[in-house]
Structure formats: structure tokens, C-alpha cells
Design brief:
By secondary structure, this protein is of the alpha+beta class. Helices cover about 50% and strands about 10% of the residues.
Length: about 700
Amino acid sequence: MSNRLADETSPYLRQHADNPVDWYPWSDEALSLARRRQQPILLSIGYSACHWCHVMAHESFEDPEVAAVMNGHFVNVKVDREERPDLDKVYQLSHQLLTQAPGGWPLTMFLDPDTLVPFFGGTYFPRTARHGLPGFRDLLVRIVDVFESRREELSAQGEKVADVLASLDTGPLSGEGEGVADEALLQSARDALAAQYDSADGGFGRSPKFPMPGTLERLLRHWAGTARAGQPDRAALDMVMTTLTRMARGGIHDHLGGGFCRYATDRRWMVPHFEKMLYDNGLLLGLYTDALALGPDPLFELAVTGIVDWLERDMRHPEGAFHAALDADSEGEEGRYYLWRRNEVKRLLTEDEYLVIETLYGLDKPANFEGRWILHRYDAWAGVVSRLSLDTGEAAALWSSAREKMLAARTTREAPALDDKILTSWNALAIHGLAKAAVQLDRPDWLDMARSALDFLRDRLFVDGRLMATWKDGVARHPAYLDDHAFLLQAALTLLGAGWRDEDARLARTLAEALLARFEDTEAGGFFFTAHDHETLICRPKPTMDDAVPPGNAVAARALSDLGHLLGDARYLEAANRTIDWARKAMEAHPAGHCSMLTALEEVTRPPELIVIRGPAGSFAPWLAAARDGYRPRRRVYAIPAAADPRLVPPYLPRLVSADSAGKTTAYRCEGFSCSLPIGAPEALAAELERGDPR
């Protein structure tokens, strides 16, 4: 018999619809029931692609004995962290305060029914005690005993937790910081990252290893700044390029189907945690594209095209947006879909094809995952070709045909489950990465994909003029969060730079106005994660720390700064500056943990180099070729057709822009709201840009 989760749109919640546990979604009904019964709430937060969520579900939530204890003594609430990131942020932070340890998924928290403040928590608990963890059923019995016999102590503890959470809601303005200079702060982050860097295998720390796109972007921008100053920090660049190379060669990268898994369990990026998330791949798409702007690299280009192929083949909704994730498991086994046996590969390929695959992906070495092989490149392609004494073209043809055969064979296996909900924020990250890649590799078809996804969000995710966070089976749900607005604003601006559409500019303005009206902390600065009229939770976070995705405050500050300079709107610039001022003390306290905020600081405090091109829509190609050359992280390029809505055109451009109506194309190089004289030819624009940084 199904429980209440059967009526939910979340694939994760539906996975638990047939549990013997009497699950509720997070709702007034569940919270009221807990208060009325004076029973603690057992809050379980996870997501559909999570391996350990599946393990705990199978071991405990499908067990009638465990379910009987849960149903008899708790109000059980199941939450999809992707639909309700607000709840996840609040209770992950609470877990950290209670346990002094990082959280994760599944997150298992026990809440007081009156205050909703947790009094105990953890992540995964096994069915029976092992590895130093208590058995879940025994833990439940102990929790019931403590709740009933020591309620006053728990209430006092809860008050302390609530006080700490309340103190974290807002932070001080920069006047209470240490006054560290910007350059010193950026250098401090770079030095701290260098101390954590794994020079042998790339990445930071030992294991597990996460891609950390925001951290790598910070280092790449740091190198660019030092290079512009004539003293390039080659070590910072090496940290980025080595890490990107090791990831692209590693088992974390799907060498057949494209895309990257969420993280590697080992130091060498060989053994992934196999779920594939839209947000990771959107962020990495943009990062690898930035690296390609430094110069061609076949490995990086393969990573970029692979991500896009995966998005189009496996993740795209028929109407254009992208689904959320692919599961880690298939046929009840983690990673089964991606693993190979040596004889299986031999049967698929010719002798020469197999020789290339064996040498490149290590099938001539011991199996690297439970007696089978995860494809992992141990050497550079050129080294493999040389070792096999093959002609380069012949080797490439063999490699291509072998991969096609292996991918075709893999598609006959039972695929990992697809979480097919549409998330606004994650789609925005994918759109941003796709638009950047489309420009860098001159792929108008990719730009069309990005626009289709944005159009889907604009058409389906606004309800009565308000942006929503999720969409599934024709239903948009959950008022959007800070990340949805900030990431989508950034994506709209990136698309405007890739190719102007008035509707994208209007969307950008709509999102910016919503940020200011619904999320800004007008007293302290910065933006709350939830809107002013959102359900009241035990705290209201204003995230600044780097996480799996960049903090919404960092992206909001960057995007508002960009839009403010484009449209000449000081309100957006002031909000961006207030955000940086508010977050300053946090950045000073832990620079390496605030790489995205530091990049926002760099962008907000230094006006961008803005290149605006006006003229007939078909005239822009040579101008854009000149303006887009190289890795210029502070340069923004917009080619605005003469027919564009004049209300969306930068108002500070000289009046000579009226020459557009006569069919003439003109460019302007602007800093702040001050622009150059009109530039009348692409060659003149190239020469102007060649003269270097105008500041």
C-alpha cells in the first residue's frame, strides 16, 4: 500500500512511496500532527541519485520492524534536497553545530515538534551496528527514551542551537572586518589553496576529491590578473591545468558517454561516486571552456563536447530543458552500467581497436574496481600513439570506432534511473556553460540548445509572474530561491553576450528586480536564500561559502554588477557592493573557502571592460572575432542589433549610435559608464584592444 509520497512530483519521494514507513512530505499537515501528538519528527533528506540514500532505504526504510518503530514513535518526513534546498541548508548547518562534523546525504535529523530545532542527527545509519555507527533500530529506541525522559534538557540544548542559528542569519558590514586589502585577500586564498594542492594528481587534499569549479576558476583568474600585470603566476595556472587534465583522464570522466561524475573516491580521480549531476556538468562545461580560451587542447575539447553530447542525448527534455541527475546505481549495484570486463571488450572490438583501448584505458593493468575496469587514461594520447607505433590518423580512427562500439554495447544494459524533474538553478548553470562553449567552439547548434532551455524556463517556470524552483509532469512547484534567480540572471547575461535577444534582456531585468524586492537584506547587505514571504524556518541562511554550487550571494553580486554596467542602473551596482561589504569579514576569516565570493569581489570592485557593438544583425562576425579573442575574464562583449528595443540599449552610449539606422556598424569600448569614441572598423577595434587594459 502506498503512503503519502505517491502523490508527490519528486522522483526521490516517489522512490519511498511503497515503504512500510508512514512518510509525509514536509507540510503543515506533518508539522501540525507532530505538535498535536508531541512526537519528535524524524526528518530524512536525500536525493534520487544518492547511493547511500538507496542503501539506507533498502536496509531500514523497507524493513517492517524498523518501520514499526518509526511509525509508532515519530512523525516521519521525507525531503528531496533538490526541491527544498532551503530545508537542506538549514538542517545541514544544524547537523554541523550538533555534531561538529560535516553533513551529507542521507541526512537524518530528529526535531523537536514544537520548535523544529533538531536535538540529534547524523547521516547514514546502518540497519545493525557496524563501523562505529549504531544500528538504526536501536538508535530509534534510544532516541525515544531520551526524548521522553530528558525533554527539558533537550529543550535547553535546542535553545542554544537556535541562538547560534539566529546569530548566523545576518553578518556584519565590512567596517567590523580587519580591513585587509583586496590584493592581499586574493593572494591569501591563492596561497591557502597551494598548501592544499596535490601536486602529483591535481585537485585539493587526498580523497575523496571533488572537481571544485569555483576554486579552479579563482586560480585561473588569479593567473590572468598576474599575467596582465606582467608577473604571471605560473604555479597558479599549473594547479588549474593539471587538475583539469587529471580529471579529464580520470575515471570520474565518462570516456564513452561524456560528462563527469560527482566526485572521485580516491586520490587519482580513478574511482568515481557514479551519480552524474546536471550542476556539476554545467559548471565544468564553463570551466573547461575557459581553459580552451587559453589555447587549443584536444583533451579539454573532448571533455567539453562530451558534456554537451551527454546533455543532449541523456538529459534533455523533449521541449528543451535538462533533467536533474542520473543515479549512481543500476540493477541494484553501484556503477554497474559503466564497468567493463576485459573479455567483453575484446569480443566487441577488432584486434587493433582493442590494442588502442587496452593501452589508453589501462585494460592491460590490474582491474581497478571489484574485478572490473573503470575506463581511466593512464597516459597522454600522444604517448599511447607513440608506444603503439601507429600513424596518428590511423590511431584516432581506431579509437573513435572502438568507442562507438563500446557505447552502443553499453546502451543495451539497464541504464541508471533518471531523475527527470527540471530544476531552475541547475538548468541555469547548464545554460551558462553551454552558451560559453557555443561561443568558444563556434557551435550555433549549442547556442540553440541553451536558448531552448532558457525559453522553457521562461515559459513554464513562471507562475503568475513569479519564478518557481522545480517543474515535473507539467507542474511548476516551490517558489524559487536565491540560487534560481541569481543563476538564471547570470545565464541570461551569458546568452546576451553570445547573441542578443531582447527577450533575454527583459528577463534579466525581471530577475534583477525580483532579487532586490524579494531577497535583499536592505539593512546588513547581501541576499537571503529564501524570499521575504517564504515559509519561516528555524533560521534564514545567507550563504557565502563555496559548496557543490557557488553561493547565490556571489553569483548575484557578479550578475547584478554586470547588468548594472550594461544598463547603466546604479541600483544594481549598489546592491552588488553592499553584498561584498557584508560578506567581507567572512572572506577575510576563510579566504580559500570563499573563492566564488572573492571572484565577485574582484568583479564588483573593478568595473568590467565592456565592448558594445551596434549595427545590422548580420554584420557582427568580424567584430566579435576581434573582441572575443583569448581568455579575458573581465571583458564583456555585447553585439546589439540596430533593431533592438531602445529601452534595453546602454543609455550612456554616445549619440552617434544613431548611425546604426543608416546601416553602419560601430563599436565602443567602455569602462564604467564612460565610453571611447566610436570605433568604425573591426581592424580598428582589434588595434584598440591590442593596446591593452584601459585601466
